[in-house]
Amino acid sequence: MADAYASGTRLHGLVLRITTGWAILGGLVLMAVVAVNVASVVGAAVFNAAVPGDFELTEVGVAVAAFSFLPYCQIAGLNVSADIFTARASKFWLSLFSLLGALVALGFGAILLWRMYYGMLDKQTYGETTAILSIPTWYGYLLVLPSLALLVLASVASVVDSVSNMAKR
């Protein structure tokens, strides 16, 4: 992670700091989900009463947390890669592959942001709620949209960083 902070453009550094904080918030959401599940299991075992809607809370919480990690993984260069194929590649080719990966991430991030926004509007229009707690399902979409916007921003910063690295070579 130290490499990610030391290298890159100013935009890269700014986006990295923002997405790091966002990922930490996602981790806190995940810890809250674990706490609800522990309380539910203990409550069921000891008091014969689980937390109502624990499955629904887990479903939304894990989705929100998982999406919150995506921008950080993009900007920090922590996505899965096949190093065996690039081990002997020159720095130019590595930069080109990084650029292509960033462009793909940008495309997917933009499509996801676009479609999730309209999915949220549909869920809001039809008034869909969860079965037990009656939580409007569009809330989950609303909580994921900032992560997708940050993913798009992180992808743009990655593209700029890759082009900058290619220009130096």
Q: What would your notes on this structure say?
A:
The chain is mainly alpha-helical and 169 residues long. The chain has one domain. It has 6 helices and no strands. It has helices at 2-6, 10-47, 54-75, 83-86, 91-126, 138-168. Helix 5 packs antiparallel against helix 6 (138-168). The radius of gyration is 20 Å and the shape is elongated.
Helix content: over 70%
Structural class: mainly alpha
Please report the distance between the alpha carbons of the first and last residues: 23 Å
What percentage of amino acids are in beta strands? under 5%
Question: Roughly how many Å is the radius of gyration?
Answer: 20 Å
Structural domain tally: 1
Number of helical segments? 6
Shape call: elongated
The arrangement of helices and strands along the chain is HHHHHH
**How many strand elements?**
0
Keywords: Cell inner membrane, Cell membrane, Membrane, Transmembrane, Transmembrane helix, Transport
Transmembrane segments: 21-48, 60-80, 92-118, 138-160
Main location: membrane
Membrane topology: Multi-pass membrane protein
